[in-house]
Design brief:
The chain is of the alpha/beta class and 320 residues long. It contains nine helices and 15 strands. It has helices at 17-20, 28-44, 59-65, 85-97, 109-118, 141-153, 158-161, 219-225, 308-317, and strands at residues 3-8, 49-52, 73-76, 103-107, 124-128, 162-172, 175-180, 183-188, 203-209, 232-248, 251-262, 270-274, 277-281, 284-289, 293-306. The strands form three sheets. It has a six-stranded antiparallel beta sheet with strand order 11-10-9-8-13-14. The chain has a five-stranded parallel beta sheet with strand order 3-2-1-4-5, sandwiched between helices. The protein has a four-stranded antiparallel beta sheet with strand order 7-6-15-12. Strand 10 and strand 11 (251-262) form a beta hairpin. Helix 2 (28-44) packs parallel to helix 6 (141-153) and helix 4 crosses helix 5 (109-118). The radius of gyration is 20 Å and the shape is globular.
C-alpha cells in the first residue's frame, strides 16, 4: 500500500536566536495543524497510509485525533522518545525500511540533515519551521501532503519531482565523522555549550554547499564572497575584505575574510581547522575536536529532495 512518513521536530525553531534576533517561531500547536493539513492533502490524492514520528508533546497523536479523512490509516511509530536528534534519525530510518515513498519533515536545516542521514535514499519534503531554513521551504502543509501522496501513489512522478542534493563530508584526521547539507563551520574552543551558532566572531572557517548571499545563516557569508554561486566554496575568517551577511534572522553582520576558495569535486578536500575546536553542521554545534585536523569535501549525493511545485505540475500535466 502506498505510504508516506511525517517527522515533526517539536524542538525546531526554539533556540537562543529567538532571544538574540528575530527568528521565526512556530509553536507546537501550529505544528499539529500543519501535520493535519499534510494528512488531509495526502489522503485527498489517494495516499491513506501514513507513518508518524512520536514525540513528548504528542504532535502525531494530536494531529491524528483532529483529522477526519475517510480511510486514513495513521500509525505513530513505536519508538523510544529521547527528545534529541536521535528521534528524527530513528524515525527516518524506520520509515525508509518500511517503504515510505516520501518523508515530510517539519523543522529547519538541522532536522532535514538528520532525516537525510536516516533515510538517504528516500525523497524528503522539508517544510520550514526552523530558524535559518536554507534547505526547507515555506510550502503550505496541504500542498506538501498532496505532493508526498502523489509520489507514493504514482512512483513514475519521481524523476520530474525530485532532485539530488550534494553535501559536505567532514573528516577528522582522515576519518569520516559526519556530513552537512548546507554548511560546516569550525569554531574556536572545545566546549559545545549552546548548539545554535549566532556569533560569527567565534568562527574560524566556513564551507558551504550551493552558497548564496540571499540565505540566512553562516552559509550566507560564503555566498557573499562568491557572486557566481559555485557548487561549493569555503572562507576563512580573519583580517581582510569585509562582506555583509545575514548571520541569523534580524542579525546582519560585516564579516572580514582572510582567505577563500572553491570546492569543486569529490575528493577535493580543504582543511578548515586544527583542534581544539568545535564543528558546527548546518548552523548547530555538533561535536568537539580536541586534537586533529578537520577537513571537508563534496559528496555529490547526500539527499533527495522533493519539489512540491514540480510534483503537482507534473501530476496535472499527466492528468493525475
Amino acid at each position: 500500500m502506498p505510504r508516506i512518513g511525517i517527522i515533526a521536530n517539536p524542538a525546531a525553531g526554539k533556540d537562543v536566536r529567538r532571544l538574540l534576533g528575530h527568528g521565526l517561531t512556530v509553536d507546537n500547536q501550529e505544528k499539529v495543524r500543519i501535520v493535519r493539513r499534510v494528512l488531509l492533502g495526502a489522503a485527498a490524492v489517494g495516499c491513506r497510509q501514513v507513518l508518524l514520528m512520536p514525540d513528548s508533546f504528542g504532535t502525531a497523536t494530536r494531529a491524528l485525533a483532529g483529522t477526519k479523512a475517510p480511510g486514513l490509516q495513521g500509525e505513530v511509530l513505536d519508538l523510544p522518545v529521547t527528545d534529541t536528534s536521535t528521534d528524527t534519525l530513528m524515525a527516518a530510518r524506520t520509515m525508509q525500511s518500511r517503504g515510505a515513498a516520501c518523508v515530510v519533515v517539519l523543522g529547519g536545516d538541522g532536522t532535514a540533515r538528520v532525516a537525510a542521514k536516516g533515510a538517504p535514499t528516500t525523497p524528503l519534503l522539508a517544510i520550514s519551521t526552523g530558524t535559518n531554513n536554507v534547505l526547507p521551504s515555506f510550502v503550505e502543509g496541504t500542498i506538501a501532503g498532496m505532493a508526498a501522496g502523489l509520489l507514493a501513489v504514482y512512483p513514475r512522478l519521481r524523476p520530474a519531482a525530485t532532485r539530488g542534493r550534494a553535501g559536505l563530508v567532514v573528516r577528522v584526521d582522515g576519518e569520516e565523522r559526519d556530513m552537512a547539507l548546507v554548511d560546516v563551520a569550525c569554531l574556536r574552543g572545545a566546549a559545545i555549550g549552546a548548539r545554535a551558532v549566532w556569533d560569527w566572531r567565534a568562527v574560524e572557517a566556513i564551507a558551504a554547499i550551493a552558497p548564496r548571499p540571499s540565505c540566512t545563516g553562516l552559509s550566507s557569508v560564503v555566498g557573499a564572497a562568491f557572486a557566481d554561486r559555485p557548487e561549493a566554496a569555503w572562507v576563512r575568517i580573519g583580517p581582510g575584505e569585509a562582506v555583509l551577511a545575514a548571520i541569523a534572522p534580524g542579525m546582519v553582520a560585516s564579516v572580514t575574510l582572510s582567505d577563500r576558495g572553491l570546492l569543486s569535486a569529490e575528493g577535493n578536500a580543504v582543511a578548515l581547522g586544527q583542534g581544539p575546536l568545535v564543528v558546527a553542521l548546518d548552523g548547530e554545534r555538533e561535536f568537539a575536536v580536541r586534537t586533529g585536523l578537520v577537513t571537508v569535501e563534496v559528496r555529490p549525493q547526500c539527499a533527495t529532495l522533493v519539489d512540491a511545485d514540480a510534483t503537482l505540475a507534473e501530476a496535472a500535466r499527466l492528468g493525475l
